[in-house]
């Protein structure tokens, strides 16, 4: 290598070292902290996005944080039900889930998607462990009462009790738990739980420092579609009442409020399709998405 080539290499190495050093205050801030990341079905996207997500989880783990992944898979369940010719409808944002449907939901969530995420984290050098709410009696569900239209949702559950024993055994041992939102009911049946609700319950039980919701929008947007960078709980109620927060964002922000009440320090809603969204949020000075605090 010429002298000029060597000095360019050295300059590049110095630049890389400087970038790494910028992450130090953030790593110290989150040292040993539990961060629950809800990875929504819409945020999963293509192979590159999935690989970047897996790499982010491994990097967090190696940086001294304890990431816990809770995944969804609504669009993927929809595609499988369509393939099988099973009709599916939603009420109040929840899938009406009969006996036949809950079997497919469990198969897609706890089977195919869970193992795909575990596989991609492991392929990036991590050690992921795939579980659902049934494992170790982690989440016991009760049946959701009828919706506002009086619809019986069937096997749709809400976490009634979370036992974090299994997770506590796993965390801090360089294992990354990947959780599918399926739970056993108090009646012994299998229940389909909305992944946002499941993530909120897990984050609350673990008193996580951060709960991140990876979705398909940059965060909570105002009336003019500009990103709101910080929100307090009291402001959320007003935004719902004014019709600025609507649709799928309502249960998401309601889960944020619940998680904060349970002792989670901060919740962030961010765009999962932005490359390395989680790293930008946790390990850079910039932050991403909307931070919601008490
Ligand atoms: N004020 C708002 N800011 C951002 N998104 C909003 C807002 N109000 C409603 N939404 C809708 O909420 C959606 C996100 O919720 P949802 O589709 O349930 O996400 P996910 O599938 O990731 O759980 C956005 O794609 C957007 O259409
Ligand atoms: C009861 C209920 O609606 N459960 C959801 C579970 C998956 C989910 O929540 O996935 P996303 O996060 O990708 O939306 C469903 O059946 O679609």
Automatic annotation (TrEMBL):
<feature type="binding site">
    <location>
        <position position="192"/>
    </location>
    <ligand>
        <name>substrate</name>
    </ligand>
</feature>
<dbReference type="InterPro" id="IPR001057">
    <property type="entry name" value="Glu/AcGlu_kinase"/>
</dbReference>
<comment type="pathway">
    <text>Amino-acid biosynthesis; L-arginine biosynthesis; N(2)-acetyl-L-ornithine from L-glutamate: step 2/4.</text>
</comment>
<keyword id="KW-0418">Kinase</keyword>
<dbReference type="GO" id="GO:0042450">
    <property type="term" value="P:L-arginine biosynthetic process via ornithine"/>
</dbReference>
<feature type="binding site">
    <location>
        <begin position="73"/>
        <end position="74"/>
    </location>
    <ligand>
        <name>substrate</name>
    </ligand>
</feature>
<dbReference type="InterPro" id="IPR036393">
    <property type="entry name" value="AceGlu_kinase-like_sf"/>
</dbReference>
<keyword id="KW-0028">Amino-acid biosynthesis</keyword>
<comment type="similarity">
    <text>Belongs to the acetylglutamate kinase family. ArgB subfamily.</text>
</comment>
<protein>
    <recommendedName>
        <fullName>Acetylglutamate kinase</fullName>
        <ecNumber>2.7.2.8</ecNumber>
    </recommendedName>
</protein>
<dbReference type="GO" id="GO:0003991">
    <property type="term" value="F:acetylglutamate kinase activity"/>
</dbReference>
<dbReference type="InterPro" id="IPR037528">
    <property type="entry name" value="ArgB"/>
</dbReference>
<feature type="site" description="Transition state stabilizer">
    <location>
        <position position="252"/>
    </location>
</feature>
<feature type="domain" description="Aspartate/glutamate/uridylate kinase">
    <location>
        <begin position="34"/>
        <end position="270"/>
    </location>
</feature>
<keyword id="KW-0808">Transferase</keyword>
<feature type="site" description="Transition state stabilizer">
    <location>
        <position position="38"/>
    </location>
</feature>
<dbReference type="GO" id="GO:0005524">
    <property type="term" value="F:ATP binding"/>
</dbReference>
<dbReference type="InterPro" id="IPR001048">
    <property type="entry name" value="Asp/Glu/Uridylate_kinase"/>
</dbReference>
<keyword id="KW-0547">Nucleotide-binding</keyword>
<feature type="binding site">
    <location>
        <position position="95"/>
    </location>
    <ligand>
        <name>substrate</name>
    </ligand>
</feature>
<keyword id="KW-0963">Cytoplasm</keyword>
<dbReference type="InterPro" id="IPR041727">
    <property type="entry name" value="NAGK-C"/>
</dbReference>
<keyword id="KW-0067">ATP-binding</keyword>
<dbReference type="InterPro" id="IPR004662">
    <property type="entry name" value="AcgluKinase_fam"/>
</dbReference>
<comment type="function">
    <text>Catalyzes the ATP-dependent phosphorylation of N-acetyl-L-glutamate.</text>
</comment>
<dbReference type="GO" id="GO:0005737">
    <property type="term" value="C:cytoplasm"/>
</dbReference>
<keyword id="KW-0055">Arginine biosynthesis</keyword>
<dbReference type="Pfam" id="PF00696">
    <property type="entry name" value="AA_kinase"/>
</dbReference>
């Amino acid at each position: 290598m010429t002298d000029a080539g060597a000095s360019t290499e050295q300059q590049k190495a110095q630049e890389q070292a400087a970038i790494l050093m910028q992450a130090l205050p953030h790593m110290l801030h989150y040292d040993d902290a539990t961060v629950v990341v809800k990875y929504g079905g819409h945020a999963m996207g293509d192979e590159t996005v999935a690989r970047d997500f897996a790499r982010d989880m491994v990097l967090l783990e190696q940086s001294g944080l304890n990431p816990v992944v809770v995944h969804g898979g609504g669009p993927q369940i929809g595609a499988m039900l369509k393939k099988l010719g099973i009709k599916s409808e939603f009420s109040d944002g929840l899938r009406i889930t009969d006996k036949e449907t809950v079997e497919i939901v469990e198969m897609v969530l706890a089977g195919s998607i869970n193992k795909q995420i575990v596989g991609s984290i492991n392929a990036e050098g991590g050690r992921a462990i795939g579980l659902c709410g049934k494992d170790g009696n982690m989440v016991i569900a009760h049946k959701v009462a009828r919706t506002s239209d009086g619809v019986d949702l069937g096997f749709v559950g809400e976490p009634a009790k979370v036992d974090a024993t299994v997770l506590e055994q796993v965390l801090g041992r360089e294992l990354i738990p990947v959780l599918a939102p399926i739970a056993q009911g108090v009646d012994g049946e299998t229940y389909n739980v909305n992944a946002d609700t499941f993530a909120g319950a897990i984050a609350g039980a673990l008193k996580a420092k951060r709960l991140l919701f990876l979705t398909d929008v940059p965060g909570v947007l105002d009336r003019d579609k500009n990103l709101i960078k910080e929100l307090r709980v009291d402001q959320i109620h007003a935004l719902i009442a004014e019709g600025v927060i609507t649709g799928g964002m309502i249960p998401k922000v309601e889960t944020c409020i619940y998680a904060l009440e349970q002792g989670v320090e901060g919740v962030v809603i961010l765009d999962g399709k932005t490359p390395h969204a989680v790293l930008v949020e946790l390990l850079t000075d910039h932050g991403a998405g909307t931070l919601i605090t008490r």
